[in-house]
């Protein structure tokens, strides 16, 4: 079942789509014939959804632009592809700060352009030096601006294609320094003659006076603030002082059971029988707190989920994958966390690392249907502001899963929620029967991110859902793929890397790292 379609106005642009291979979301390109070495391309997002309200089961295939930009301001804006026609628009011709909110709607990515209702900007510069104005500019642009002593100014980058570093210069103090505004850091003194770090400092302040002059970068809401000042005038973020402490927790066995009510005989009282049981063994939690850091480590040696309902096709739903290279003493989960013990409304995380050993995952449709009643979303979303976290480094190592999936049959006793899930499996994603298929989920490495825990969880879920959908396409032998993967953290972090298994196609030699990385 293949269809060929073309644009009504540009009939030279066409494409083919195999409906039998379509699952969930994908993208297709309509390309014109090559002319003078150039070819026009239109990218469309394609989605498949069932029509549950019809008497006859049917599916709807929707075509939408892959990218949509909505100008929600009252001012016309100019749009162009990055690095194309660079001479037509000057970055410095715009003197106002605008906001773009990016959302994913089905197979489309929608960019909402608007003037912000709040006065919060990405950056703010505070010059708390006494009788010493400064000059600042983005590294590489050399379009400088002045900021007087005791003055404050909001700031956005002049050119997003240049490095996100600010150069601070003061002729009175003979000061020249590069500062990464995305990296939150406590007050740090300027030191003299450290040329290797991009700093030249000498002149009027020498000795102990030079050590009193420095800078800090801290977060206020979505704004990162650069304050240039003496130590006594740094932001009032006090370190928690006191003696160091150690904490150790050992749990040899912990289990959770999910039960369902059965009514086999109406004359007898219904009883609860287990559906699945999750077991964790040898849980070790170590924590050390000192003046400078709070360090925590969680290790779980064994994790398993077993199916316990009568007629279950698999005995084990989740278990550590064992191979010839496996070590019986390896911990299946390792989590390390380093916090900066600062009393601030933004919680600062020095590093958070999550490592998961290879897993065997066996899923059947019958078990999924029994788990549906346990899913419940809150009836109302909380309007309270969520606490922000600054992650200096956040990483999830690549995850290897050996997966099996067994489809099931329909049941007239299914609820509407169960029918919706079944339709998603069979009509939208079209998951085939899978037996011991190796799935490699790329990891995540994010640096200098200012984000809430909910945003972090949602973006990680989107990251892994892309690879799960890709694995389904590969299992079906389909040449289609989900829509192009774009970094989900670019608008919230200084950098984000897609950490993958095979480094042969794009290896970057980074210090202390042995995994392949691709930006």
Automatic annotation (TrEMBL):
GO-annotated biological processes: protein retention in Golgi apparatus; protein targeting to vacuole
Q: Locate the Vacuolar protein sorting-associated protein 13 VPS13 adaptor binding domain: which residues?
A: 6-114
- The protein depicted here goes by the name Vacuolar protein sorting-associated protein 13 VPS13 adaptor binding domain-containing protein
From which source organism is this entry?
Genlisea aurea
Q: Which Pfam families match?
A: VPS13_VAB
């Amino acid at each position: 079942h293949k269809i060929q379609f073309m644009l009504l106005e540009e009939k030279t642009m066409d494409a083919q789509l195999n409906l039998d291979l379509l699952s969930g979301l994908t993208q297709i390109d309509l390309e014109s014939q090559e002319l003078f070495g150039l070819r026009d391309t239109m990218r469309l997002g394609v989605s498949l959804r069932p029509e549950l309200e019809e008497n006859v089961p049917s599916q709807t295939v929707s075509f939408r632009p892959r990218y949509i930009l909505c100008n929600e301001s009252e001012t016309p804006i100019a749009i162009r592809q990055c690095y194309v026609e660079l001479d037509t628009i000057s970055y410095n011709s715009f003197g106002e700060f605008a906001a773009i909110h990016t959302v994913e709607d089905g197979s489309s990515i929608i960019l909402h352009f608007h003037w912000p209702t709040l006065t919060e900007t990405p950056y703010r510069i505070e010059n708390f030096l006494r009788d010493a104005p400064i000059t600042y500019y983005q590294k590489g642009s050399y379009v400088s601006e002045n900021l007087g002593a005791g003055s404050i100014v909001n700031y956005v980058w002049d050119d997003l294609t240049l490095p996100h570093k600010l150069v601070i210069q003061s002729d009175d103090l003979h000061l020249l320094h590069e500062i990464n505004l995305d990296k939150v850091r406590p007050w740090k003194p300027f030191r003299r003659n450290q040329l290797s770090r991009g700093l030249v400092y000498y002149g009027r302040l020498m000795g102990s006076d030079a050590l009193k002059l420095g800078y800090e970068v801290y977060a206020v809401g979505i704004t990162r603030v650069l304050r240039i000042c003496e130590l006594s005038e740094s932001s009032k973020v006090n370190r928690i002082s006191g003696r160091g402490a150690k904490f150790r927790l050992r749990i040899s066995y912990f289990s959770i059971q999910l039960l369902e009510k059965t009514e086999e005989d109406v004359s007898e009282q219904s009883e609860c029988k287990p559906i699945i049981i999750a077991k964790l063994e040898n849980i070790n939690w170590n924590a050390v707190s000192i003046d400078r850091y709070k360090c925590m480590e969680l290790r779980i040696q064994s994790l398993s989920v077993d199916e316990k309902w009568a007629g279950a096709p698999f005995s084990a739903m989740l278990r550590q994958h064992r191979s010839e290279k496996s070590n019986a003493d390896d911990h299946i989960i390792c989590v390390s966390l380093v916090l900066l013990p600062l009393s601030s409304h933004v919680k600062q995380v020095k590093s958070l690392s999550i490592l998961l050993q290879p897993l065997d995952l066996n899923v059947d449709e019958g078990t999924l249907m029994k788990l549906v009643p346990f899913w419940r979303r809150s009836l109302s979303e909380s309007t309270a502001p969520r606490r922000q976290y600054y992650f200096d480094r956040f990483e999830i190592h690549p995850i290897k899963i050996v997966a099996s999936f067994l489809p099931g049959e329909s049941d007239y006793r299914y609820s509407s929620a169960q029918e919706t899930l079944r339709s998603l499996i069979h009509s939208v994603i079209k998951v085939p029967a899978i037996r011991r298929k190796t799935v490699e989920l790329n990891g995540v490495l994010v640096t200098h991110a200012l984000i809430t825990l909910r945003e972090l969880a949602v973006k990680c879920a989107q990251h892994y859902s892309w690879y799960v959908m890709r694995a389904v396409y590969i299992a079906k032998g389909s040449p289609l793929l989900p829509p192009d993967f774009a970094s989900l953290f670019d608008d919230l972090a200084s950098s984000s890397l897609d950490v993958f298994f095979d480094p042969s196609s794009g290896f970057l030699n980074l210090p202390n790292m042995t995994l392949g990385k691709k930006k």
